[in-house]
Amino acid sequence: MNKKILVAYFSHSGNTREIAIQIHKNIGSNIFEIQSVNPYPSEYNEVVEQAKQELQSGYQPELKTAVKDMKSYEAVFIGYPNWWGTIPRPVAAFLSKHDFSGKTIVPFCTHEGSRLGRSITDITRLCPQSTVLNGLAVRGREVKNAQNEVSEWLRKIGMIE
Ligand SMILES: Cc1cc2nc3c(=O)[nH]c(=O)nc-3n(C[C@H](O)[C@H](O)[C@H](O)COP(=O)(O)O)c2cc1C
Questions:
Q1: Which of 117, 124, 145, 156 is a plausible cystine mate for 85, CB 3.0–4.6 Å?
Q2: What ipTM was estimated for this complex?
Q3: Å from CA of 72 to ligand 1 middle
Q4: Residue 54 is inside which H or E element, if any?
């Protein structure tokens, strides 16, 4: 695999991180965690309410760090939990703050039933000059057993042989 690939992910409770690590191990890519400066509350109802408000207002939280050499990547995996049917706002901020034009974006998400929801449409809207591939959706409670599903998907989209 000659392409330079980045796996960027946001994870609140660890499920998406698990899939991000599996992808990173399969393809030997670099890995980057998207983190907001102000962490989200750990209490479920609180984060659900905060995420709802942020989505409604279109809020883009400040991120801890940026990817320094984004230019050098041809393909970027973007991982996230499905929050209210779409990408969490830190992921929207990440997509807005970097230049993805000409790159391939490979979405993957974890969820509790809504799969990718409308996240692909929303990613495409934020990155109109990128090629957005079909994403992988894994149920949050199944991430530990998803190795085969992940590697089959990577093979199908041509990321591994
Ligand atoms: C704020 C919030 C909103 C959520 N909204 C949805 C949703 O709309 N549909 C769904 O299937 N799961 C939803 N979930 C469940 C998460 O997508 C799921 O638990 C995911 O695996 C969490 O990933 P993480 O551990 O990487 O944070 C939501 C969870 C949170 C905290």
A1: 117
A2: 0.99
A3: 31
A4: helix 44-57
Q: Is the CB of residue 113 below 6 angstroms from any atom belonging to ligand 1? A: yes
- Can you give the residue ranges of every domain in the chain? 5-156
Please tell me the pTM assigned to this model. Answer: 0.97
Query: Cβ(24) to ligand 1 under 6 A?
Result: no
Per-residue pLDDT of 114-160, as tens digits, reads: 999 999 999 999 999 999 998 999 999 999 999 999 999 999 999 99
Is the shortest distance between the CB of 79 and ligand 1 below 6 Å?
no
Q: Which of 111, 115, 118, 144 to mutate to test the pocket of ligand 1 (most atoms within 8 A of CB)?
A: 111
Burial (CB < 10 A; 0-12, 13-18, 19+), residue 88, is buried
15 ligand 1 Cβ < 6 A: yes
Angstrom distance (rounded) from CA 157 to CA 161: 10
- Confidence tier at 1 by pLDDT (50, 70, 90): very low
